[in-house]
Fold this protein.
Amino acid sequence: MRASRFFISTLKEAPSEAEIVSHKLMMRAGMIKRLGSGIYTYMPMGLRVIRKVEAIVREEMNRAGAIELLMPVVQPAELWQETGRWDKMGPELMRVKDRHGRDFAIQPTSEEVVTDVVRTEIKSYRQLPVNFYHIQTKFRDERRPRFGLMRGREFTMKDAYSFDRDAEGLQRSYQVMFDAYVNIFTRFGLQFRAVAADNGAIGGSGSHEFHVIADTGEDALVYCPNSDYAANMEAAEAVAPAVPRAAAAQPMTKTPTPGKARCEDVAKLLGVPLTQTVKSLVLMVEKEEDGKVTKQAWLLLLRGDHELNEVKAAKVPGLANFRFASEAEIVEWFGTPPGYLGPIGTKKPISVVADRTVAAMSDFICGANEVDFHLTGVNWGRDLPEPAVFDLRNVVEGDASPDGKGALAIQRGIEVGHVFQLGTRYSEDMKATFLDENGKPQLLQMGCYGIGITRILGAAIEQNFDERGIIWPASLAPFEIVLCPMGYDRNEAVRAEADRLYGELTAAGIDVILDDRGERPGVMFADWELIGVPHRIVIGDRGLKEGKLEYQGRRDTEATAVAMGDAVAFVK
Ligand code: ATP
Ligand code: MG
Ligand code: MG
Ligand code: MG
């Protein structure tokens, strides 16, 4: 590719809405362009990376025996009604009507459609096992789209669906996909970890998430450095003791007066990165009367939203006495309705959060996780119980690993893939059967396997960047190497050597871009460092006279002189 015939559009500053490094750098490098909340145009530079991700995924899926098809983005509501998900999915499912008033879903995933395919296409056990996949646009009306491609509303996912005749077959198909995922993430050149995940509401018998390790990740991963034990926090907590642990009391530092606090403060207090949805908690302590517990600790956990009906019970497994608090109870406990502290009359009711390690009941923080919408040190206007001290986490660093092989460690991750044993969850509802050897109909055993294609870009950058820009792993880079001729537009010798080398690299099958824009060296270098091309060769008049070029890897601090004839071998 010649830069003059490509489209390059870089920015010095990232737009203010970009919060995390990957979002900022993708915007600055001209990889994506925002069209609306969570909706982006993949610009030519970004699309090249997406295509590289897709190519690796496709290759490994094919190698693992999965078969590509392409299912529609717009799907009839009837299918979603068959499995009950039309109602269950709630507002995340984008719905549209056609001119006849018929309902359609814009697919957030394709279990229904693929099950419809197999229930008509798969007739006999002889056709099994089979695994269909596609790489297709998804739409999820996320409550809080953010971080660019990381949590978009429109995004690209690879989703695969395996069908087997029995549970053992499903196990095998699942293992094949698990192994394929290990290959895929290894080929991406990213640091990742597979963790056991909670099956949650979907049911079924097994699930793993693949996470790219990054401090800005939204998920906490629990693992044992001495063994294979690894689980996401939800799954780890599900098997952890249900008792809230005592934590050291901290002195109250603020006088409880209502006031505004910034997002940063709340995040700091909760001990989570600012970029993460601050989980909001309402806590009610146990009251001991005559040595008897008369009221237990109730806990509300809201994930960055303020609607009680969206509270996720599943996110605090292991807490035996967990349930949703009603609005009446909140009034009873706190002497104020949940909406009382709403940020300037907007979203209601507001969550009330306490420190994760709750220092003192009377030192509440309430927050909406929006800039300048946090109130700290709220005085509840009535006597509160004695400061009660809890650590709300069921699993903390240093806890014994469930396998007894050492102490647990915790790190943060970005969920980039998810494999799931669904069993007959969908085939039952949709009557997807095959005929066994005896001609008897049996339910298909199903597995599903997703990879967030576009999310990979953000995750890769969160792991690979410096102050100058992105550092793509070679397998994902939009171009593997950039040729920077000094004075392409005016120096005959430089132009001739640049063109020659460009031809040679192209012929060697290397994904090369020749910067023939005639930009000043400073501009050229800054652009390509921002864009994150892993290899750069500078062709200058002085070097040419000595038969030399300058090579610099994106992580190198200095350039190396390379003999003209050796350049191709050097890059390879
Ligand atoms: P999350 O927990 O981040 O919301 P999920 O568990 O809802 O993700 P899955 O249903 O497991 O997502 O979908 C498979 C994969 O699709 C995820 O592992 C993730 O990589 C990707 N993905 C999900 N939601 C989004 C999104 N809003 N934007 C980009 N990628 C996404
Ligand atoms: Mg989700
Ligand atoms: Mg998830
Ligand atoms: Mg998932």
